[in-house]
Write a structure and sequence with these properties.
about 90 residues, mainly beta, 7 strands, about 0% helix, about 65% strand, globular
């Protein structure tokens, strides 16, 4: 079901690691907003089975939004590189 309020996937993170996965409506748009990046990389990752993950689009190295037009069944945020910052990632689908 589509959300009207974003879900926080990463909250004030200061290390590498993936968020818990969220199950979304496959084929629908989704948006990941990331803030708090000083020196880090955050990727939006998708999966059809919740086990095998691939990066969708270009990972962020600065605050921004990643848009997916046709989301797979599962999405998560993954801080793949961390040097500094307090990273928050929110998803809306």
């Amino acid at each position: 079901a589509s959300l009207t309020t974003p879900i926080t996937l990463l909250s004030a993170v200061g290390a590498t690691g993936a968020s818990p996965a969220v199950q979304v409506d496959p084929g629908q748009p989704a948006f990941l907003q990331v803030s708090g990046i000083t020196s880090a990389t955050v990727a939006l990752q998708g999966s059809l089975d919740g086990t095998n993950w691939s990066t969708i689009g270009t990972a962020l190295t600065a605050n921004g939004i990643i848009t997916v037009q046709n989301a797979p069944k599962y999405l998560r945020a993954n801080c793949t590189v961390y040097v500094s910052g307090t990273i928050t990632a929110k998803i809306l689908y």
